[in-house]
Task: structure prediction
Amino acid sequence: NKKSNRPQENGCHSFAMHYSYSDDGYNLLLEEKEPNGKTTRYSYEDETKLLKSKFILENECIRLREFYEYDENALVTCYMVDDGQKEDKDDLIGVSMRKIRRTQNSRETPVGLPVRIDEFYYDLAKKQEILLKRTINQFDIRGQLISSSYYDAKENFLYSNLFQYDSRGNI
Result:
């Protein structure tokens, strides 16, 4: 009789999650533990609620890492995900893939909209980011998306989507 972490088929099912929170006044989620051995850990920028990193572990071994960077308006400017084994984002031990999304947010009114989004993969042999695709967005004065233009890895234009709105802001 092999013991598993799955509910037994005895007419009564249960599933218990365990959560840990910070005691710094922000009450931020630090860890989630599932009975199957999966753990998710979170870290935050000092004295903020901004997520800095997220690690998904299986039996205490990191399987997936996510890292976040922000601008002065607390908007994400860089998101990285990979399969590394350490909590330091610069430690590439065990990394077989890393994807990176860099976002340039508008600095003029309306502030904070994603005007350019570049998606990369990290070439481990060349030790450099390689562009996969680019999106350029344009917004009107009310912050409504009016166009999205898409480019390939060689920065060649592919296509655009154009958007029009009625007086109520419906697309």
